[in-house]
Amino acid sequence: MTTTHDTWTVGPEPFDSPDAVALWRECYTHLSDSWYLLKENRRTDPEELEREIAADPGSEFVAPRGALVVARRDGAAAGMAGVRLLDDERAELKRVFLRPEFRGTGAAARIVGAAEDQARLLGATRMVLDVRTDFVAARALYQRLGYSEIEPYTFGQYAEHWFGKAL
């Protein structure tokens, strides 16, 4: 008889661990390539990609004002999410990413839940996030998890929808 293992774990991990760095590279590449393909019908220039990843390594996802969680399925790194405090009450959800082969497994909800737990541990009572219009599945996920659209709190070129949730 064959036994299939399907064990998920999601927990805090240093932003600069090898798995977190690899996940961030995949996440950033996906975010950037999808933007450029949508707007300019091209992928991200490799030099630009390297510059941007180096400029944003994730150092804000460390205690006492932040945290990063990594999801693993049967030990393999599958996804991640970061949280950082914006003020004494609000934490911001960032870098929610799940490798394509793990999508549709319910893991995204696990990752967001673990990030919310970390935000609570940091003292936050509210989680906020922004997301692009073209990330339809992400917006649907946040709504399923109890997030509601809120007024803008960021004004970057990639922020097109804003969500919030009481923790």
From TrEMBL:
It holds the Pfam family Acetyltransf_1. Coiled coil: none annotated. InterPro entries: Acyl_CoA_acyltransferase, Bact_Acetyltransf, GNAT_dom. Residues 22-167 form the N-acetyltransferase domain. Transmembrane segments: none annotated. Keywords: Acyltransferase, Transferase. It comes from the Bacteria. PANTHER family: AMINOALKYLPHOSPHONATE N-ACETYLTRANSFERASE-RELATED, AMINOALKYLPHOSPHONATE N-ACETYLTRANSFERASE-RELATED-RELATED. This is GNAT family N-acetyltransferase. The lineage of its organism: Bacteria, Bacillati, Actinomycetota, Actinomycetes, Micrococcales.
